[in-house]
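Q: I'm building a small set of examples for a reading group on sequence design. Run inverse folding on the following structure and report the sequence directly after it, with nothing in between.
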């Protein structure tokens, strides 16, 4: 007998999650989910509003007898990362996610699942809907565009939220309580190129890198997975060195916060060097595959004959691109000296794309230390300067400084120990949680982040462990019932 998503336990949460999978909600295309959530609150007779930044805020009065408890804000984000396998025809702006249950996990067919952060949204909706749960005054804050810049959290206005405690439902390891996160910054190197014509007797080829696991550029950056942009750059450099390769176009990576899984380039070279080119790249591809065998066993490097393009990128600009990508930092830059096993500073070389006379190399920089983030930005700016590119840094957001003396942390440690018979782990996370931004707008908020176990977020391998969702829900219910008085 096949188990459907709404039949899983806790049923209220999974029913809401299934409904979310039926509503397209990639970052930047959240109108449907925004209206759905706001209408949900209105149908319950709860005060519901959509602010100027696209956030939805729903307020629920306290259960009778709990009016004097501290107000709690349940916070989750509406959008999801749209990533799919190369053979998928899924349209994230139109098609529902095809989620299914298998061996204790919920997954999606060929796409991201949206458990990040659909499980958090579903949990908040289930709490709002319940007439039996014990809780004080509640607010549910559903933020917009978290995955593509956290613009919803950044657009929050002061004095809108009333609660004293914020529970961020956007972490991905059950049994762990997060009390700090990294800040981030978008960095882009851009340079212009001119189009050059080709001499006669050239051959065209398409080079394609695919099959990498990718993943979350914060949570998974320490795993040493392959970066499609770095791999493509090695292949192009080898072709340039051996066979006078010329580049017509390149398109690598997709989202700033996803480790790039795929890259495609269109190249040309003298016909009499075609055989050498193919042999050289196959040898290098085998070497790269061996290097990454333990972490990316499904890497594919394909070299196919293609039509000869009308023009190519001028050779000087091509050389500058090769240097820029080779010199750009990628992966872990520094581990934390304060918390074992936690990444302090990293860079994700997320996107390399040529278009209409311009080449952009886009990165997402992360660090829990502001000065280290600035130093990393300076390093990337230096790379840009060396290759004659302009550099820009935008979308910066603050980190969240851990508070080991947090009252909500102490309460949740006690409740977790009582419920599950063991202590939860207390951690900081190398990812951008909205807590840092919200805490900057609302100083004094007591905040914590927790969630179920989600693996491979931001990739088509994303999955959520069903048993952990039940534990997450039970824990949330217990915490809400035990919030202290003001």
């Amino acid at each position: 007998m096949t188990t459907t998503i709404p039949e899983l336990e806790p049923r209220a949460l999974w029913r809401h999650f299934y409904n979310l999978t039926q509503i397209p909600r990639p970052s930047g295309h959240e109108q449907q989910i925004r209206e759905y959530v706001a209408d949900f609150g209105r149908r319950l007779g709860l005060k519901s509003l959509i602010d100027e930044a696209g956030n939805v805020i729903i307020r629920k009065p306290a259960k009778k007898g709990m009016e004097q408890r501290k107000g709690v804000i349940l916070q989750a984000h509406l959008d999801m990362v749209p990533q799919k396998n190369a053979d998928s025809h899924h349209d994230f702006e139109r098609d529902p996610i095809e989620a299914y249950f298998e061996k204790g996990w919920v997954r999606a067919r060929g796409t991201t699942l949206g458990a990040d952060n659909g499980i958090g949204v579903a949990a908040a909706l289930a709490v709002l809907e319940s007439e039996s749960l014990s809780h004080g005054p509640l607010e549910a804050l559903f933020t917009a565009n978290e995955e593509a810049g956290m613009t919803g959290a950044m657009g929050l206005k002061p004095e809108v939220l009333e609660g004293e405690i914020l529970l961020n439902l956007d972490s991905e390891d059950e049994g762990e309580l997060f009390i700090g996160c990294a800040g981030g910054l978008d960095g882009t190197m851009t340079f212009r190129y001119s189009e050059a014509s080709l001499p006669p007797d050239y051959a065209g080829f398409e080079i394609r890198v695919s099959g990498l696991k990718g993943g979350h550029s914060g949570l998974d950056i320490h795993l040493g997975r392959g970066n499609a942009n770095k791999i493509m750059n090695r292949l192009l450099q080898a072709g340039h060195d051996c066979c006078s390769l010329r580049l017509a176009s390149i398109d690598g990576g997709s989202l700033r916060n996803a480790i790039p899984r795929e890259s495609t380039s269109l190249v040309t070279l003298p016909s009499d060097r075609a055989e050498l080119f193919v042999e050289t790249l196959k040898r290098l591809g085998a070497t790269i595959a061996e290097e990454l065998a333990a972490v990316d066993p499904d890497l594919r490097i394909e070299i196919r004959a293609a039509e000869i393009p009308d023009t190519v990128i001028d050779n000087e600009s091509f050389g500058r691109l090769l240097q820029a990508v080779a010199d750009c930092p990628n992966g872990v830059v520094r581990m934390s000296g304060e918390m074992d096993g936690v990444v302090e500073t990293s860079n994700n070389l997320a996107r390399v794309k040529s278009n209409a006379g311009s080449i952009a190399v886009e990165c997402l920089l992360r660090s829990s230390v502001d000065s280290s983030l600035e130093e990393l930005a300076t390093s990337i700016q230096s790379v840009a300067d060396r290759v004659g590119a302009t550099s820009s840094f935008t979308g910066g957001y603050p980190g969240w400084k851990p508070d080991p003396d947090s009252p909500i942390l102490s309460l949740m440690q006690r409740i977790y120990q009582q419920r599950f018979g063991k202590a939860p782990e207390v951690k900081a996370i190398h990812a951008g949680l909205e807590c840092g931004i919200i805490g900057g707008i609302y100083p004094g908020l007591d905040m914590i982040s927790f969630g179920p176990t989600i693996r491979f977020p931001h990739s088509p391998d994303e999955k959520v462990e069903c048993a952990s969702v039940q534990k997450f829900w039970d824990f949330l219910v217990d915490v809400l019932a035990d919030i202290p008085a003001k």
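The first strand starts at residue 47 and ends at 50.
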